[in-house]
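=== RUN LOG ===
request id: a7f3
mode: sequence -> structure
chains: 1
length: 262
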Amino acid sequence: MSLEQDQPRVEDVTGTAVHHADPAMPESVSAAEPVATAGVASRAGKSLLREYAEAIVVAMLLAFAIRVFVVQAFKIPSGSMIPTLLIGDHILVSKLSYGLQWPADCKFRMSFPPVTCYASRTVLSFGKPERGDVIVFRYPEDEEKDFIKRIVGLPGDTIEIRRKIVHVNGAPLDDRAFTQRVDPGVIDGHINPRDNFGPITVPAQSYFVMGDNRDQSLDSRFWGFVSEEKIKGKAFRIYWSWSGQGAWQDWVRWERFGKAIR
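=== RESULT ===
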């Protein structure tokens, strides 16, 4: 008894209807084979696109994690840290210098990265910021902006400036190695907070910061202390420097590549 008449039709992977071959008929190339081959190629193409998409997503997540938890790059736009940092320097800032930080006070937005955080909590401490560290932090008066300055006063320190000389706990701070000032003759007769300030005591978990270019820096003398939770990290290396001035041969400051920030 033959079952050929009762066999149902089946669907192949491409959705093409085919009949079971009659055993009595000679073998021949099925017309469905080219369609099946095209289906395999289509699946392979989709699989390749999916792999690329997954690789891109993983790379973006990895870059975001490195930026948030390990190291972040910044560009110096002003001269407030001359001579330590020049306009056009590109620097690396370590997020792990003082400990493992967990972002806090975050907001989502349509940008990259899609999350902006305005504070951080230290979940694993490696140490505290020290006097002389060059740090990047959220500007207290506009937390959308990042500032870079040098720590001068630690929690509990008393800071006073007398005719441009910084005194910490009553002793003058020897900062000649990394600071720059305008010729005193240029500004005699014009005394401002840059020249005389304090005394003032730094609160707990806060820092008093100043720019190395003391006469051209907007810093703690004008807007107060930096809270520890607003510190993003410690600047440690110049990886690229671009002046864009003078002859084109001098646009790149090759001598600054890889220079440590002290």
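=== NOTES ===
Residues 33-69 form one domain.
Confidence is low (pLDDT under 50) at residues 1-21, 23-32, 183-191.
=== END ===
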